[in-house]
From TrEMBL:
<protein>
    <submittedName>
        <fullName>DNA-binding protein</fullName>
    </submittedName>
</protein>
<feature type="transmembrane region" description="Helical">
    <location>
        <begin position="95"/>
        <end position="117"/>
    </location>
</feature>
<feature type="transmembrane region" description="Helical">
    <location>
        <begin position="6"/>
        <end position="24"/>
    </location>
</feature>
<keyword id="KW-1133">Transmembrane helix</keyword>
<feature type="transmembrane region" description="Helical">
    <location>
        <begin position="61"/>
        <end position="83"/>
    </location>
</feature>
<keyword id="KW-0812">Transmembrane</keyword>
<dbReference type="GO" id="GO:0003677">
    <property type="term" value="F:DNA binding"/>
</dbReference>
<keyword id="KW-0472">Membrane</keyword>
<keyword id="KW-0238">DNA-binding</keyword>
<feature type="transmembrane region" description="Helical">
    <location>
        <begin position="36"/>
        <end position="55"/>
    </location>
</feature>
């Protein structure tokens, strides 16, 4: 309530100034002007309080200028009329009131112009860095999540377990880590105003594993009075606004669960740049709301409680990507020259970004960046934004140049099963053994998970589909190892000298290559050598003694660089 009262009062500053000038210049009508102004103010204050309560305008210079102008236009003429004060339009520009009105108009125009050029300042406020390549993906930390559409579909079907289920709808899914497991959390929200009046509080929330396609949702009963779908003073956005009317709220508050299973609503807020509403990325905070008591605790984004993964909302992350890519050289350059401009793709699962987790459980927002030139479907690189700090890392190494973007990866999946109408979703670019690789969830028309797709980003014809993330990853790595055009992808793996006796041999021939796979006695590594590297390998047989140098990866495969075969090689 305090925030709304302050906003309503601040919107009358111009009204007070103009009214005082009228009062001061018309001595004979002062009592009448005073009575009229008091009545107009009381009526207007109630009206503006109702507007502030309903729309919650942030207390910023641009917003206050606009609100003051509206209040002055609506209510100052009532003071003139009620006080029977004559208006001389021909001398308006010479009067103090006219000067103040003119200055206000100039300030509004100035704010509009400044907000355009403030885009560069907002870009400069981003904590950013550039790196060539992301760390390689391995089997132990495969950060593949179930697509939120698939998770939501399962949770929707489980809504019948909620008491008085007819009162509720499923709220926003939020990916987070709870007790070491990556899960989706979704609150139960009121379905309408009358359901809120009848129910007064919601029943709890659902969780479902985000890394297991066979997982089933679990309902956790936890009464919540302050929610996104509650009305009046129980609405989370209104609670946060009342505590911080001078901060802009980014997106809808999301639910996060602490290690004891208690839910909290988390709302990203930020202070805008002075004289504009553009975000200052150095002033990101997070308001944590207790859904039972409505108490609000506010922290700098990076200092939020440990259970909060998303201090920075997906909406603000999307804005950060846009400012980082478009306004690197200012607003004018984003329209005309477009030097170094990058446009974020909109293939993400939340506000055009996709939340992913690293091997340590930290959450990041992924987005690939494309050229502003039309009909160009190659990616320039990609960004990862730390969901707790807002720090942006741009990956634009040589291996990421000329690769397809996320839209191209999704199109490949969509064309794979046209008769089934399966579609790709949640494309994320990973570094798999040195190869930029798109990993895409494949869903049926009902949003149910069907497969994973691993697509080599530099070769649209190189795609592997599988039922599980680990199975598909291993199959993809094996195909990479067998393809002679891909051996450069293992260059970061050190060479290892090996010798032994051949146990099993398999020769694979295609139109473009011949490769030999074999096992050594007492060694489970699957070795692959191409005939272009070792022409005599085509004659390998069980029992041959070999000496070789290979790049052996953690997934149990090895790419042979040199090989000597006893009795054949010189």
């Amino acid at each position: 309530m305090i925030g709304m009262l302050i906003t309503a009062l601040l919107s009358f500053i111009l009204f007070f100034i103009l009214t005082f000038i009228v009062y001061w210049k018309n001595r004979m009508r002062r009592k009448k002007i005073m009575r009229t102004a008091a009545g107009v103010f009381i009526f207007g204050f109630i009206l503006m309080f109702a507007i502030a309560y309903a729309f919650m305008p942030t207390i910023t210079i641009p917003n206050m200028l606009i609100l003051n102008s509206i209040v002055a236009i609506l209510f100052v003429p009532l003071v003139y009329g009620g006080g029977k004060v004559p208006v001389q339009y021909q001398t308006m520009h010479r009067s103090l009131s006219g000067v103040i009105v003119l200055v206000t108009a100039v300030l509004i125009v100035g704010v509009f112009v400044y907000s355009i050029f403030a885009l560069q300042d907002s870009h400069d406020s981003i904590a950013k860095s550039e790196e060539a390549e992301a760390r390689p993906l391995n089997e132990d930390n495969t950060p593949i999540s179930v697509a939120p559409e698939s998770a939501r579909n399962k949770v929707q079907k489980a809504m019948s377990v909620v008491p008085n289920t007819q009162f509720y709808d499923l709220g926003k899914l939020q990916a987070q880590q709870v007790d070491g497991d990556i899960v989706y959390v979704a609150p139960v929200e009121f379905s309408s105003f009358w359901r809120y009046v009848r129910g007064n509080e919601t029943e709890g929330y659902f969780t479902i594993a985000a890394t297991n396609i066979n997982a089933q949702p679990e309902f956790v009963q936890s009464k919540m009075k302050y929610t996104n779908s509650s009305y009046f003073n129980h609405n989370v956005q209104r609670v946060v606004y009342s505590a911080h009317p001078d901060h802009i709220q980014s997106g809808e508050a999301q639910i996060e669960v602490d290690d004891e299973g208690k839910p909290w609503y988390v709302q990203t807020i930020y202070k805008p740049l002075f004289f504009s509403n553009r975000p200052d990325m150095q002033e990101i905070k997070v308001a944590v709301v207790d859904p039972v008591t409505g108490d609000v605790e506010t922290y700098p984004a990076s200092e939020a409680p440990e259970f909060v993964e998303g201090s920075v909302s997906s909406e603000l992350a999307a804005t950060e990507n846009e400012y980082f890519g478009k306004y690197i050289n200012g607003w004018l350059n984003s329209i005309f020259g477009k030097k170094d401009v990058k446009i974020p793709n909109e293939s993400g699962t939340e506000s055009s970004v996709t939340p992913i987790f690293d091997e340590n459980g930290a959450m990041y927002y992924f987005t690939d960046m494309a050229s502003p030139k039309e009909n160009i479907d190659s990616a320039l690189g990609y960004t990862l934004i730390d969901a707790r700090t807002g720090e942006l890392t741009y990956y634009n190494g040589q291996q990421n140049q000329g690769i397809m973007d996320s839209k191209g990866a999704v199109q490949i999946v969509n064309k794979q099963y046209p008769e089934k109408n399966w579609t790709g979703t949640m494309p994320v670019l990973y570094n798999v053994d040195g190869h930029p690789t798109w990993i895409v969830n494949v869903l049926d028309p009902n949003g149910l998970f069907k497969q994973y797709a691993y697509i080599k980003a530099a070769d649209s014809d190189f795609a592997v589909f599988g039922d599980t993330a680990k199975q598909t990853l291993n199959a993809y790595r094996l195909q990479i190892a067998q393809d002679p055009s891909n051996v450069e992808g293992s260059q970061e793996v050190d060479l290892t000298e090996k010798s032994g006796v051949i146990k099993r041999v398999l020769v694979t021939s295609t139109e473009s290559r011949q490769s030999v796979q074999f096992l050594l006695e007492g060694d489970t590594t699957i070795y692959t050598v191409t005939t272009s590297k070792a022409p005599l390998s085509i004659f390998l047989k069980e029992g041959d003694q070999v000496d070789l140098e290979a790049r052996i990866r953690e997934n149990g495969t090895g790419t042979v660089e040199t090989m000597q075969i006893e009795g054949i090689s010189n």
